[in-house]
Amino acid sequence: MTKIKKIISAITSVAVTAALSSCSFLSKEPEKTNAEFVLQYIQERNTDAIYNMLCKKLQETPNIREQIEQTFDFIEGDVISYENGYISGDGKWSDDGKTKMDLGRSCKSIKTTSGNLYQLGLSYYDENDFEPELVGIYHIYLYEMNQDNSTDEHYLKELHIECQA
Predict the structure, then answer these.
(1) Could you give the dihedral angle defined by the CA atoms of residues 58, 62, 64 and 65, in that order, rounded to the nearest 10 degrees?
(2) How does pLDDT run across 76-112, given as a tens digit for each residue?
């Protein structure tokens, strides 16, 4: 009988441990997106952190650090809240197995202490065997929006940092 109790006790311990592990897994914060990191770095005025996320081609753009610094003053006030935007992707594979994975993320409906509303978006390659110098962020855009936030026609001002062809 004691052998059965030990087996039941062991099975119960494993089940409880598994249940607790899955609960802690589910309660973990989701990983930040690249757009969320860029928004954080804009708020922190961290030129180097944004620069390091850029693809090599964009890093080689003349005055790129000054362009990054323009984003610091574009968003007025401190960020109160935002929504994670879309994720889009486009993948291409060649016959020899080369890949090209293009992704896009945004932080939309960014509300600030100034009462303004913004949208931040970026495009980046996680992989690009065709053009390795484009791996990383190759386009960042910021829009200040009217409060109704309905369509593209309601952008008040915009700022783009992107690779030139």
Answers:
(1) 140
(2) 999 999 988 776 666 666 667 777 777 788 888 899 9
- Give percent of the chain with pLDDT exceeding 90: 38
Under 8 Å between Cβ of 128 and 100: yes
DSSP 141: E
**Are 74 and 156 a contacting pair, CB within 8 Å?**
no
Chain-centroid distance of CA 134 in Å reads: 17
Alpha-carbon span 91 to 84, nearest angstrom = 22
- CB count in 10 Å sphere of residue 104: 17
Write down the residue that tokens 């009988």 correspond to: 1
* CA of residue 102 relative to chain centroid, distance: 13
Q: Does the reported pTM lie above 0.85?
A: no
Residue 82: helix, strand or coil by DSSP? strand
Name residues whose C-beta falls within 8 Å of residue 73's C-beta, 6 or more positions apart in sequence: none
Q: Which residues pair with 54 in a beta bridge?
A: 137
